[in-house]
Design brief:
Layout lengths: L31 E6 L5 H12 L3 E4 L4 E5 L5 E7 L6 H9 L4 E7 L6 H14 L2 E4 L7 E2 L5
Antiparallel strand pairs: 1-5, 1-6, 2-3, 3-4, 4-5, 6-7
Helix pairs in contact: 1-3
Length: 148
């Protein structure tokens, strides 16, 4: 499933319905993640922080609240906002118990948490808290600022 951002069009499907259980094999690649935070933020805020603090170029589609980071090795990482209304009650319990106010679907083209992205993610997490978690049945693996 490739969710590459193309200017002017965007697939708006609910990724919460496409969960996969990736927790059994730690050596597999994971392309679909969530960034969850108790802060109320938008794509523009994330893009500005990354450009200022990480000296990394970010493409922003402000009207859609979508951004794309291109790492130095040309791997792209897309952030797309999501609604907080997951269908599964246990997912909603997970979100509510952590006081989550903003969720971005994060697509990592390579399926690998590159060191360069870990550094960018740490800057994001240090500013707005939260965590990056896999789009899986149990949201694992998950990474907070302390894990990077």
């Amino acid at each position: 499933m490739n969710n590459k951002i193309k200017k002017g069009s965007k697939d708006k499907k609910d990724k919460s319905q496409n969960k996969k259980d990736n927790s059994q094999n730690q050596n597999i690649t994971i392309t679909d993640w969530f960034y969850m935070t108790p802060s109320e933020i938008n794509g523009k805020s994330i893009a500005q922080l990354i450009e200022e603090e990480c000296n990394t170029s970010v493409e922003l589609w402000e009207e859609m609240n979508i951004l794309q980071i291109e790492l130095s090795n040309k791997v792209t990482i897309d952030f797309e906002p999501m609604n907080l209304n997951f269908k599964d009650p246990s997912d909603m319990e997970f979100i509510n118990s952590r006081n989550i106010h903003t969720i971005f679907s994060v697509y990592i083209a390579s399926g690998v948490l590159e060191e360069e992205f870990k550094n960018i993610l740490k800057v994001i997490l240090d500013r707005w808290e939260g965590f990056l978690c896999a789009d899986s049945q149990d949201f694992q693996p998950a990474y907070s600022s302390n894990d990077l």
